Amino acid sequence: MEILLLGTAAGGGFPQWNCACRMCTADLPSRTQDCVAISRDGAGWYLLNASPDIRAQVLATPRLAAGPGPRETPLRGALLTDAELDHTLGLTMLREGAGLRVWAPAAVLQALRADFPLQGIVSRYGAWEWHQAEGSFTVDGLSVTAVPISDKKPKYVQSTADGPWVVAYRISDPAGGCVVYAPCLKTWPEGFDELVAGADCVILDGTFYSPDEMSGATAAGVGSGAQRAMGHIPIAGPDGSLAQIARHPGKRWIYTHLNNTNPILDPDSEQYKEVLAAGAEAPPDGTVIRV
Ligand code: MLT
Ligand code: MN
Ligand code: ZN
């Protein structure tokens, strides 16, 4: 299986257009919003989430280039972990195509029908298919398991529908190779250790380095950290994800969905060195992984 990290920043990207924080003005490598593409055979590709930056991401990625027919594309579908705008808006950018097969949890599909009626909108442009991602299912020969991990609802959603609002995906190729994609983790959820056991690569929520990053004493001063950090487990600290990673050596741990305040965006930072020393990494957009 081939895995392309198309984008590795949280909503807003890095730098963020309306932000003049220390990190956004530091002239560090830019990152587009979180999106991954996977393929079993290199011919058909499936997105994990659909970033608003998808057009630029596809154009920057030779593996996803259009062809060989004049209107052919290797993009076949998308699996959504949640209904957040930074993970779903990209579908509207793909309306010029013939339509995709989309999988998402039931609550997410409902939000994309009612609160933000993206399903109805793009379906007027092509033959889109909408499938509920629940339990285990097969996507083009890949075995996929959707695991509920959080009840964090997008801000725009008004419905009081029960979740799960966020899932992680465990995707394995029967011929070998397994990846877990979990860019929206509130805590280290129960059962997550079992989920990542046996995976070659785990792509993980790296939104915040510390829980008070946006407003704390050493922080960016761009908002209420306690509030924003809710719904995203920090990397550092006793309750952070890095402490958990240490218990699972021997696999590739990749942080994605990095918020523009996260000090690990600077590869020379002490914080990023700590991440590397613990056996994890935050590689740039465009990284190719084979498992
Ligand atoms: C999140 O990941 O928490 C959301 O994407 C926040 C947002 O609306 O940008
Ligand atoms: Mn997000
Ligand atoms: Zn910033």
Automatic annotation (TrEMBL):
Keywords: PQQ biosynthesis, Transport
All copies of domain Metallo-beta-lactamase, residue ranges: 45-257
Alphabetical GO biological process terms: pyrroloquinoline quinone biosynthetic process
Tagged with keyword Transport: yes
The keyword Mitochondrion is assigned to this record: no
Gene3D superfamilies: Ribonuclease Z/Hydroxyacylglutathione hydrolase-like
Pathway named in the protein's UniProt entry: Cofactor biosynthesis; pyrroloquinoline quinone biosynthesis
PANTHER family documented for this protein: COENZYME PQQ SYNTHESIS PROTEIN B, HYDROLASE C777.06C-RELATED-RELATED
Biological role: May be involved in the transport of PQQ or its precursor to the periplasm.
Family according to the record: Belongs to the PqqB family.
The name this protein goes by in its record: Coenzyme PQQ synthesis protein B
Species of origin: Kibdelosporangium phytohabitans
Lineage, broadest ranks: Bacteria, Bacillati, Actinomycetota, Actinomycetes, Pseudonocardiales
Gene: pqqB
